[in-house]
């Protein structure tokens, strides 16, 4: 079953890209769109680089399904 999109930027990559990285500040609960990527490796590398303490990065595929996370609470 395909997940329902949520308000705002959503989990689905745009412009023909295959992966979307979404950032979440685990202290303030704010979230934001990092970027869309062609390959899983590029999205994963970006998430690993940008994630950190109190900052989680979530990678979603083109169907909006969660596939990877980086960072820590």
Q: Which structural class best describes the helix and strand composition?
A: alpha+beta
Q: Can you tell me the overall shape?
A: globular
Beta-strand portion reads 35-45%
Count of domains: 1
- Termini, distance in Å? 29 Å
Largest β sheet strand count, sense and barrel closure = 4 strands, antiparallel
Pattern of helices and strands = EEHEE
Radius of gyration: 11 Å
Quantity of strands, as a count:
4
Share of residues in helices: 10-25%
- Total helical elements: 1
Could you name the ranges where pLDDT drops below 50 across 5 or more consecutive residues?
A: 1-6
Name the average pLDDT. 90
Which strand order do you get reading across the main beta sheet? 2-1-3-4
Q: Describe it for me?
A:
The protein has 73 residues and is of the alpha+beta class. It has one domain (19-70). It is 15% helix and 36% strand. The chain is built from one helix and four strands. The protein has one helix at 40-50, and strands at 19-25, 31-37, 55-61, 66-70. The chain has a four-stranded antiparallel beta sheet, with helices on one face. The longest helix is centred in the middle third of the chain and has 11 residues, at 40-50.
Q: Summed up, what is this model?
A:
This protein is an alpha+beta fold. The chain has one helix and four strands; from the N terminus they run ββαββ. A hairpin with a 4-residue loop joins strand 3 and strand 4 (66-70).
